[in-house]
Amino acid sequence: MTKAENLYIIVIGCGRLGSFLANRLSNEGNSVVVIDVNSNAFNMLSADQFSGFKIEGDATELAVLKQAKIDKADVVIGATHDENVNIMTAQIARKKFNVAKVFVRILDPNKESFCKILGIESICLTSIAADKMIAALNENSNI
């Protein structure tokens, strides 16, 4: 996949992170489908930026993933507030539907190695924040 190529991306979760990603990825010309259990979450999508599809439903259910055409997806991103849902849907995407790129947001740094074993790329916000804070502390060590 080249960067200039438009991708078919499924974003699971339409909170702050999911809606931000969906808006940006859609605005960059990708085909984006967002899945969320709460239809009110779709209010965070920008009419100016997001031109994709919205599916209200539980992404841990195969029928919902099939409705999103997961078998056609280039990328699946688990961005819900529940890291277990993110990991479970990522496993389904990777193992059952052979999605090439699968990313999940997690908060528990202890789950990073678990995701690696499953072949799922995890973005651990806790680890990222801690690394940045420690780096800032080391830069400003005039305490």
Description:
The protein is an alpha/beta fold and 143 residues long. The protein has a single domain (8-139), classed as NAD(P)-binding Rossmann-like Domain (Rossmann fold, 3-Layer(aba) Sandwich). Helix content is 38%, strand content 20%. The chain contains five helices and six strands. The chain has helices at residues 16-27, 62-67, 83-96, 112-118, 125-139; strands at residues 8-12, 31-36, 53-56, 75-78, 101-106, 121-124. The longest helix has 15 residues, at 125-139. The protein starts with 7 loop residues before the first strand and ends with a helix. The model has no long low-confidence stretch (mean pLDDT 93).
How many helices in DSSP terms? 5
Proportion of residues in β-strands: 15-25%
Shape: globular
Q: How does the helix and strand content classify structurally?
A: alpha/beta
Helix content: 25-40%
Q: What's the rounded overall pLDDT mean?
A: 93
Number of structural domains: 1
CATH evolutionary superfamily: NAD(P)-binding Rossmann-like Domain
Biggest sheet character:
6 strands, parallel
In whole angstroms, the N-to-C terminal distance is 48 Å
List keywords for this structure.
143 residues; alpha/beta; globular; single chain; Rossmann fold; 20% strand; 6 strands
Blueprint of the fold:
Blueprint: E1 8-12, H1 16-27, E2 31-36, E3 53-56, H2 62-67, E4 75-78, H3 83-96, E5 101-106, H4 112-118, E6 121-124, H5 125-139
Parallel strand pairs: 1-2, 1-4, 2-3, 4-5, 5-6
